[in-house]
Design goal:
By secondary structure, the protein is of the alpha+beta class. The chain contains two helices and four strands; from the N terminus they run βααβββ. It has a single domain, classed as Gcn5-related N-acetyltransferase (GNAT) (Aminopeptidase), CATH 3.40.630.30. Strands 1-2-3-4 form a four-stranded antiparallel β-sheet. Helix 1 crosses helix 2. The model has no long low-confidence stretch (mean pLDDT 91).
């Protein structure tokens, strides 16, 4: 099995948000509720990582399908900018 890790693209957002919504349906797997995980919010996070280079958003692909993703995003306030939030998601079935 060959998994490819690459930077997330804006157009990946719907797939990533849907995977997060599915994961969030299981209590304890995700801090957010499914309705809070929108395509737009994921697009915004990817764009911020790409534009500012202050965070990083990766996807894992197998056979052309996204099977997981990870985001390391620093806190936005100056006093906490040395702290980052890490989210890692393995998509359902993987």
């Amino acid at each position: 099995m060959k998994v490819i890790i690459r930077y997330a693209k804006i157009e990946d957002a719907p797939i990533l948000a849907q995977a997060e919504r599915e994961i969030a349906k299981t209590p304890g797997y995700f801090c957010s509720q499914p309705f809070e995980l929108t395509d737009e919010q994921v697009q915004k996070t990817i764009a911020l990582c790409l534009q500012t280079k202050k965070g990083v958003f990766f996807v894992a692909e197998y056979d052309g399908n996204i099977v997981g993703h990870a985001c390391l995003e620093p806190f936005s306030s100056r006093s906490l900018s040395h702290i980052a939030e890490l989210n890692i998601a393995v998509h359902e079935g993987w």
